[in-house]
Amino acid sequence: MNYKNRNDSKVRAKKHLGQHFLKDLAIAQKIVDGLSGHGCYNKVLEIGPGMGVLTQFLLEKNGFSTFVIEIDTESVDYLNQHFPELSPRIISGDFLKFNPDEFFPEPFAIIGNFPYNISSQIFFRALQIRDRIPEIVCMLQKEVAQRIASPPGNKDYGILSVLLQAFYDIDYLVSVPPGAFDPPPKVQSGVIRLRRNATVSLDCDEKLFFRVVKTAFNQRRKTLRNALKPVGEFPEHPLLTKRAEQLSVNDFVELTRLAESLTSQA
Question: Which positions are annotated as binding S-adenosyl-L-methionine (predicted)?
Fold first, then answer.
């Protein structure tokens, strides 16, 4: 028996886990259909499956094997009961502490209705293992989804936009109203797809790149000459007259290389 025709007991949504269970089956199908197979993976990991509304559609798709990771033990019990064929591939644990080597020796995709309170942390963790993750399809708070997908020059463009766009091509797929969830969140939601681009590594110190980007956006209303003072005293450069939201990924790489020269001169 699957979610589509099930009327039995439900998992209690837990506020401290940021749980809002998707109940709109049409949206669930659209999220799953967002997987394009980019990167030729044969395994998909769903983060936070809850009661399996996405899971049921994933299990219907051919071409890959579905795994799920769930921190809520009540949800784990529920999934074991209602999706017995999935039981060997249910990982009880926290994605933020998850070691992919134990389950995924090869590249794998990520999908899920991300808990809004830790969505940024999930992306930072994904960036750490980005060469293992060719594709991500996820739902999160609409404001964050738009920010991630925004191009330079847009007011929504921010830290996650730059860091993720450095390694992924990003598409905004669909908006989702609060009524599609139980319980309904107080915010709109959005679905995005990230597909790994051809960038193997940046032409700069990547740790310093992350620092430059974060420092630049911490005072985004200031010109970069002033915003980047915590990094060092930069020589004259046209990019320093701009604000963080005006710079592309390549511009930030250029600034990072300039910052590297400051270190070498120190």
Answer: 20, 22, 48, 70, 94, 113
